[in-house]
Design a protein that fits this description.
Layout (H helix, E strand, L loop, with lengths): L1 H4 L5 E4 L4 H6 L4 E4 L5 H8 L5 E6 L6 H7 L1 E9 L8 H7 L4 E4 L2 H7 L1 H17 L7 E5 L3 H9 L6 E5 L14 E5 L4 H12 L4 E6 L5 H12 L3 E6 L5 H9 L7 E6 L14 H22 L6 E7 L1 H4 L5 H19 L5 E5 L17 E2 L4 E2 L3 H12 L5 E4 L4 H7 L7 E9 L4 E6 L6 H7 L5 H17 L13 H4 L3 H13 L1
Parallel strand pairs: 1-2, 3-4, 4-5, 6-7, 8-9, 8-11, 9-10, 11-12, 12-13, 13-16
Antiparallel strand pairs: 14-15, 17-18
Helix pairs in contact: 6-7, 9-10, 11-12, 12-14, 17-18, 18-20
C-alpha cells in the first residue's frame, strides 16, 4: 500500500490462493512463493533490469539468492525474516552495491520508541483519511491461539491474525420479549438459572419438572414473580415426545422461544455387575431422549442458545456411574452434532455443586470430594461460569474444581498420563486443560512387541499421524506416502515441529 502510494509498481510472491486479493489491491504481477521461478519471471517482465527494492521474508534454500538476483544495481534489500538470514558481511560479499537493512520491529520499538510512535501516528492519520487501507485481518480469542498459529503456520490466512486477550464474546442477550425453557426447572440448578435469567432481564420462563414444585421451589417461584417475571410451570416427562410438543405449544406466540436449558438428570449408581439395562434406561431416557425430542421439535426455530447440563463423569469418570457417564457423553456428542448442523449448542460438564443439584448430598462437610482431589462448585461460582460460557460460542466445556496433583495421585495416573486432549476445565483459580486418557502402550514398545512383518505398517502409521497433526489433516490414513512433504505444504517451522513430535514418540 505504501509503495503504491508513492507510485511504485509492486511485484509480489504469494500462494496462488491469495493472488485474487493481491490483484484486487492493484498488484498485477503475482508469482508463486514456494518455488524459485519468480526470479526469472520478474527479470523477464522488467526487461532484465530487476526491481529497486526487495522486502524479503523467504529464507528457504535459494530464496535469498534468487531475490537478490532480481534486485537492480544500487538497489535496497530489506530483510524482515528472523531465521537463516544473511549477515551484512555475507550480503556485502555477494553484492557490494546493495543497501542492506535487517529490520527487527521489536528491536526498533525498544531502541527508538518515540520514532516508532511517530510513524504509527502518521499511519493512523493516513488510514483515517482513506489514503491507506488496512490489510484484511481475522480476530481470534486467546483461547484459540493454537488454532490461530496453526492457520498461520500453514499459510491459510489472508492478511493479519489478531489474538484478543479476552475470549471473544458472542453477545448473547437475554430478552424480555422472549421465552426461556428450562427442563429440570424446579430443581436446584434449574431454579438457580431461572433466577439468573430474571436478573438479566428475562420476563417469560417455562419451567418443566416431572413433579410439581416443592415448598422451597414454590417460594423461589413467587420471588421471581415479584420481580416481574411470568413463570409457567408444567409437569411432564421430557422423554415423552408428545408431552414435549404440548409443552412447546404452551409458549406464548407473543414471546417466542429463544433459549433452552436441558438440565434433567436421574442417578442410579451401582457397580458394573449390577448395572443392568433396566438400570440404564431410566438414567439415559431423560437426558438422551429428552434432548433429542427438544432438538427435533425446535430445530426450525431461531434459538439464541441451546444448553445441555452434562457432567464431569463423562470427562473424568465416576465410580458407580457408568450409566450416568454414558448419558452425559451422549449429550457432549449431541452438542457437536447440533453445531455441525449450524444450530446453537453448548454442553457443560459440571462437577458437583455445593448446596444444590443432585450431587449436593454427596459433598462432604468441607465442601469437597477430598478423597478424589475434586472440589465442589459454589452456586455463585457456577452461575458466574454459566454466564461466561453462554457468551463464548464454545461447544463443550468442563467446569470442575480440581487439585490436579491430588487427583492424579489418587486416581492411578501413570507416566504416560498426558494433558491437553479434552475441552477446558475451569477451576476456581485458573483455566487448565482436561485430562486425556493414558496410552495403553507407548509407540516404541508397540513396535518392539510386533512381528517383523507388522513393524513397517506400525511405523508408517506413526509417521502418518505425526504428519497429519502438523499439517492439520483429519484423516491420516488418506495421506499419500509417495507425495513429498514439501508438496503437501510442510515448511521449515512445520519441519521442526514434526521432528520434535517424532522425537517424543
Amino acid at each position: 500500500r505504501i509503495a503504491q502510494a508513492v507510485g511504485a509498481e509492486v511485484f509480489a510472491t504469494a500462494s496462488p490462493s491469495k493472488w485474487p486479493l493481491l490483484r484486487a489491491m492493484g498488484v498485477r504481477h503475482c508469482y508463486h512463493s514456494r518455488t524459485l521461478d519468480f526470479g526469472a519471471q520478474i527479470l523477464e517482465e522488467t526487461g532484465g533490469r530487476g526491481v529497486d527494492v526487495v522486502v524479503n521474508a523467504l529464507t528457504g534454500e535459494g530464496f535469498i539468492a534468487m531475490s537478490l538476483r532480481t534486485l537492480a544495481p544500487g538497489g535496497r534489500f530489506i530483510e524482515i525474516a528472523k531465521r537463516a538470514i544473511w549477515s551484512p558481511a555475507e550480503m556485502a560479499a555477494a553484492r557490494g552495491d546493495v543497501a542492506y537493512q535487517i529490520l527487527d520491529v521489536r528491536q526498533e520499538t525498544e531502541e527508538r520508541p518515540e520514532q516508532v510512535g511517530q510513524q504509527l501516528r502518521m499511519l493512523l492519520e493516513r488510514f483515517r483519511t482513506g489514503e491507506l487501507q488496512p490489510n484484511p485481518h481475522t480476530v481470534s480469542p486467546i483461547t484459540e491461539a493454537v488454532a490461530a498459529f496453526r492457520t498461520m503456520q500453514q499459510g491459510q490466512h489472508v492478511g493479519k491474525i489478531v489474538l484478543t486477550a479476552v475470549p471473544e464474546r458472542r453477545g448473547v442477550t437475554i430478552r424480555p420479549d422472549a421465552t426461556y425453557l428450562i427442563t429440570g426447572g424446579l430443581g436446584g440448578l434449574g431454579l438457580a438459572v431461572a433466577r439468573w435469567l430474571v436478573e438479566q432481564g428475562a420476563r417469560h420462563l417455562l419451567l418443566v419438572g416431572r413433579r410439581g414444585p416443592s415448598v422451597a421451589a414454590q417460594e423461589a417461584l413467587e420471588a421471581l414473580a415479584v420481580q416481574g417475571a411470568t413463570i409457567t410451570v408444567m409437569q411432564g416427562d421430557v422423554s415423552d415426545r408428545a408431552r414435549v410438543q404440548q409443552i412447546l405449544d404452551a409458549v406464548d406466540p407473543a414471546a417466542p422461544l429463544a433459549g433452552i436449558l436441558h438440565s434433567v438428570g436421574v442417578l442410579d449408581d451401582g457397580a458394573i455387575p449390577q448395572q443392568t439395562w433396566e438400570r440404564f434406561v431410566p438414567v439415559l431416557a431423560p437426558k438422551v431422549q429428552g434432548a433429542w425430542n427438544l432438538h427435533t421439535l425446535t430445530e426450525g426455530m431461531a434459538l439464541d442458545w441451546f444448553v445441555l447440563f452434562s457432567s464431569a463423569a463423562s470427562l473424568l469418570g465416576s465410580r458407580g456411574q457408568a450409566n450416568h457417564a454414558a448419558a452425559n457423553a451422549w449429550l457432549d456428542a449431541f452438542a457437536a452434532y447440533r453445531r455441525a448442523q449450524g444450530l446453537p449448542a453448548l454442553s457443560i460438564n459440571w462437577g458437583a455443586w455445593a448446596e444444590i443439584g443432585a450431587a449436593a448430598a454427596l459433598v462432604d462437610a468441607a465442601g469437597a470430594f477430598t478423597e478424589r482431589g475434586m472440589g465442589a462448585i459454589r452456586p455463585s461460582e457456577g452461575m458466574a461460569a454459566f454466564a461466561h460460557l453462554l457468551g463464548q460460542g464454545g461447544t463443550q466445556v468442563g467446569v470442575v474444581p480440581v487439585d490436579w496433583e491430588h487427583f492424579l495421585e489418587r486416581n492411578g495416573a501413570t507416566d504416560g498420563f498426558t494433558v491437553g486432549m479434552c475441552p477446558l476445565v475451569v477451576s476456581r483459580t485458573s483455566v487448565v486443560p482436561a485430562i486425556a486418557a493414558p496410552a495403553l502402550l507407548d509407540t516404541r514398545r508397540q513396535i518392539e512387541l510386533a512381528g517383523s512383518a507388522e513393524r513397517p505398517g506400525l511405523l508408517l502409521g506413526v509417521l502418518r499421524r505425526a504428519v497429519a497433526r502438523v499439517l492439520g489433516l483429519t484423516h491420516p490414513e488418506r495421506i499419500d506416502t509417495t507425495q513429498g512433504l514439501l508438496t503437501m505444504g510442510l515448511d521449515s517451522l512445520m519441519a521442526v515441529e514434526l521432528r520434535n513430535q517424532l522425537a517424543q514418540t
